[in-house]
Design goal:
The chain is mostly helical. 70% of the residues lie in helices and 4% in strands.
Amino acid sequence: MKQGEQSGVVSERVADLLAERILSGALKPGTRIKQDELAAELNISRIPVRDALRILDTRGLITLRAKFGARVSAVTVRDMEMSYRIREQLEPMLLAESIPNLTDTDIEEMREMLNALAEVTDVEAFLPLDRQFHWIAYRRHEVPQLAQIVERLWDTTQSYRRAYAKLSLKNGGKVMRAEQAMIFSAVERREVEMAQAALVLHIRRTRVGLANYGYLIGADPVIRTSEF
């Protein structure tokens, strides 16, 4: 492997490591990422670290500015709302592209994820299971550009989803689990329009819930409801 190729591989690994820390909540929105410190921690040069930060900038996970360095992206409540509105439009399209190509094995994997989600009570265990549940349903698409957009929206709103899921699980998560079951049932039967409708309902209710409970991520609540 040539030196340039080796540097590229290292950069990808550093990007994956930082992405994991950001999505897990270990690195909070607004946190500054110092190239020198990270290079020293990983015992590598600054070049692959710099390239890794550029990769994450294109994914929307960090913001790079010439005079301010790199910081974990912090989206506003307005950004969050628009991201979820876009998801309401695009994600059902991705699901519709995938459903006809799903295999019986895919359906069984979704069922396993659904059963696991029914038992989980810890948000850090819930988030990866929930993501896997949805992305199994999307995996047979043949529209990579659409999938990349949707994945970016998932990544950049992770901190909101964590706060919302934490409160939902604390309250029992009955509505959330019912919606997941509705999505799975429609996907299992290969009912594309029904699956799309259930997915839109799920995304929209989450968006409304996030707006209502905006104080969880530093915004004023709009409406208080007993369950969401």
